[in-house]
Each structure stands twice: as C-alpha cells, then as structure tokens.
Amino acid sequence: MLVRNGWLLTMDPDGTELPAGDVLIEDGVITTVGQDLAAPAGTEVLDATGMLVLPGLVDTHRHTWQTPVRHLGAQWSLPDYLRELLFGSGRRFRPEDVYAGTLLGALTALDAGITTVVDWSHIQLSPAHSDASVAALRDAGVRAVFAHCGPIGAEPPAEAGPHPADLRRVRTELLADDQALVTAAMGARGPDFTGIETTAADFGLARELGIPITAHVASGPAGPHQRGIRAMADAGLLGPDLTVVHATGASAEDLKMLADHGCTVSISPQIELTMPRLGSRVVLRELLAAGIRPGLSVDSEAAAAGDLFTQMRFALAAHRAATPDGEPPLPAADVLRMATVDGARTAGLADRVGSIEPGKAADLALLRTDSVGLAPLRAAADAVVLAAHPGMVDTVLVAGRVVKRGGRLCADTARARALATATAEHVLGG
C-alpha cells in the first residue's frame, strides 16, 4: 500500500513533518517515507490528500473488560470503584462477558485512532476468562499487550499467594510469539494491593517468563501494605521491564529511583484529576523533571472517555496549571509524543510502533483536516492536541491492514454493541 499525499507527523527523533508526504508499506511494515514516491506494480494507493497522517496512538493502561459498565462511575471515588466494580459487579463477569467488554473496548480504541492497547486485565477468574480476553483482542484486530492479572480481592491479598499460575499457560500456549499482534505481560497486583513478598514472587515469575510487568502504584508511602516505590526499590524489584501506573503519591525521590532504574510510567490524567481518593494529582511535571517521559492511558471507561485526545488535553491542562509564572509552558506537541512514541516505549514496543519510520509497523491514524473543527490547519501537532476527536479519524491501519475506512470501522459493530448490552444486563441486573 502507498499512503499518498498526506500531512505527515512522523514523530521520529528529528520531529520530521511533511505537509505533502507519502508512506510506502510492504507486508505490514513501513519501508519508505518521503515525497512523490513511486508505487510498485500492484500497490493499493490510499489517497491521504486533506488528511493528517499520525502514528497510531498508544494507550498504555486500559481495563478494556470494563467497557460494558462505561460511564457509570462518573461520581465514583476510588473506594467506590473498588467496591462497586472490582469487588461487586466485576465478580459476575463470565468469560463471554469479558469477551464482550474487551471486544467493544478494543473497537472503541481503534475508532479513536488508538492502534496499540496495554489491556490491563484484572478479571482472570478462570482460564476461560483469559482465553476470552485474548480472543476478543485478536478478533478486534488491535495491537495489544495483554497484561494478565488475577482478580484483586477485597481481603488483604498478601494471603492469596503469588500471581495466578494461569499466566504461565497464557504465555507458553497462547502468547508465545513476541512478534505477534497480541503479546503477553504481567498485570502485577503490586505493593498497593499485596505484601512485598508476594510482589517479589510475582515479579520473579514475570522475569522467568521474559515478559514486561505493569503495576498500579498510586498510594505512595501511605499505602495499606507497604511504602510504595521505596518498598520495591529496597526489595531490588525496580528495572526497565516495569511500568508504574499512576504514581500519584510518588515523591521526587521516588521518581528519581524509577528513572535511575529505567522504569516507565503510565498516567491517566482524566481519572487522576476527577476520581476522589486517587490523588487528584497528575505528576506529569514531576515526571519530566525526573527525566521520565510517561505514556498516557484511558484507564477505565467506567469513569473516563475512551480516547487519547481527551487524555492529551487533561495532561496539558494539568501541567500548565502546575507551572509557575516565568517557567516556559509545556509544548502541546510534547503531549502528542506521550501518546505516540513515549507510549510505545512505555508499552515495551518502541522498536515496533509509535513513529512513522522505515522498519516500524504500519500502524497509522488518518485525520480529516477539512473538519470545521480543524480547518484552516497551520500548527498540525498543536491542532491534534487541542481540538481533535474520534469523529475526525477517517482511516486507521494496524500492521498495514485497514481497520477503519471513510470514518467507519471495518467490523461488525452492531454485534459488539449487542454483546456488551447483554453483558451489562447480566452483571448489573437489567
């Protein structure tokens, strides 16, 4: 395929921007980026005239299975979320409900130009639940890192033992190919939800299996089981294979420890600012000061929008609100990097996605520039951050395959909605 004559925001290390550029794709991989490229015989030409061409966006932490209960937690605090969803209706999710939620959530991501999702799946009540999660991700056609986690219980999980053994089966039988569209990770309960000994056992299993680790660590030194990041550092658990989610309670010293060990961080700006008891704080300014460029995430559609345009705007606003007079404001284009190349690094896929460069997967999002909300276009990256929304996403490619064309998903969306509706009726009681 040749993507012809689009306004390219490559997000490459040089920040290359081509107002009239082409992208040549072979076998799902970008081979050439330039202008006036020749189309080899038999090449499909995708006319991108009047469109912005971006790398597919990367969501670094999304509880995709929760999509059927979307928007019900708009007023929830963190304890409400834990009680009502994780310890409540979530326990009623059958494998078919996990499939329905994950399918609709993944399609929602694709519709919004998100081509890669770290699917933080803490609903593995049985091996069948795991199989359903993976099947839904594959059926949706999204690139995904399946972060397997057993259910987080209301009781102190220190007594629950290490990570469920089902992860070993998932890794060796379902997701053994690290180059496939869906790959494996551990969604570790982490020291906010269990003792440090169990955390160490979990991390040890992930490292034995050779998969990345992602863990919620929001509480800082006041957590119920531990002393947050410091506890992991003291136990020798920090490393470049670890993504810390939220970090809203982290101190400057905590963040320096993460940076010194090469850890990555995923932030969820909308939920972090609007969900009481999660911190009401986005540590973006502190992360950048520590030398950590975080990835962005939706977190849960129970209490947040399902697109990264919203998260970019919340992130930018949070940073600007925390910036003292006289200090230069964070450029909007830097936030777009967090949703693309920085997100790819956070997801452990920096060699594969996040920028439009030869050798990278052809994961692309094309936005219409003739929208009344974008025209006339001058500062392209700023326009995306300040004004873009899923309705402007015209075309989406994952590994060179078109999954959205002409503003419509190439999927059976009616089926996905019907399955999720049936799940909502089951888990919420009609």
TrEMBL record:
<dbReference type="InterPro" id="IPR011059">
    <property type="entry name" value="Metal-dep_hydrolase_composite"/>
</dbReference>
<protein>
    <submittedName>
        <fullName>Amidohydrolase family protein</fullName>
    </submittedName>
</protein>
<dbReference type="InterPro" id="IPR050287">
    <property type="entry name" value="MTA/SAH_deaminase"/>
</dbReference>
<feature type="domain" description="Amidohydrolase-related">
    <location>
        <begin position="52"/>
        <end position="403"/>
    </location>
</feature>
<dbReference type="InterPro" id="IPR006680">
    <property type="entry name" value="Amidohydro-rel"/>
</dbReference>
<dbReference type="InterPro" id="IPR032466">
    <property type="entry name" value="Metal_Hydrolase"/>
</dbReference>
<dbReference type="Pfam" id="PF01979">
    <property type="entry name" value="Amidohydro_1"/>
</dbReference>
